[in-house]
Amino acid sequence: MIRVMIVDDQPLIRDGLAMLLNLRPEIEIVAVAEDGADAVAKAVELQPDIVLMDIRMPGVNGVEGTSRIQQCVPAVKVIMLTTFKDSELIFEALEKGASGYLLKDMPTDTIVQAILTAHAGGLVLPPEMTGQILVELRKTKVIEAEKKDVPYTLFELTEREIEVLKEIGYGLNNREIAEKLYITEGTVKNHVSSLIHKLALRDRTQAAIFAVRHGISEYV
């Protein structure tokens, strides 16, 4: 059973989601919290497997809460609960160690699948959401501002590695990338390992952030 904590400053959302998820046999709600500070204290005490964290809260927000949890109990996986308007905060949270993000009004089945994915070590970046979030990021000029300082290591990538990096930025997993690019899943895995090494990144999450921050879609 996966032990989950829900963090949201609105009791109706927090308790309603807890009630729905508690009905699932694979999930146990071990705590709820009202802000990032409360979440950190309870994460240290209870060490849940997964934290569903609202990104905007008074006091300590979700980004800072995620950062503190990752520092104190790095084994805990955090999934951000957000809206499309939180584009910049989403990627700050990923940089702080979040395992992905979901919209608050997602169906329960989608939230459960995200919990299972994060618990298994995967990254929760829904492709249909990521595309729209990229649009929001471009509106705020985040990508345009940072593209001017694209690391020189990008130019060490092959054309195929850049294509794979682009799809990682859109939230696709290895199987989906393989199907889209008409290559094997093993080949995708090799490309992912190679580009992470060449770009001196820690993992796939950092690769996704790199792709979005530097507008990799513009290079393909």
Automatic annotation (TrEMBL):
It is found in: Cytoplasm. Keywords: DNA-binding, Phosphoprotein, Transcription, Transcription regulation. Transmembrane segments: none annotated. It comes from the Bacteria. Residues 150-215 form the HTH luxR-type domain. Residues 3-119 form the Response regulatory domain. This is Response regulator transcription factor. It comes from Ectobacillus antri.
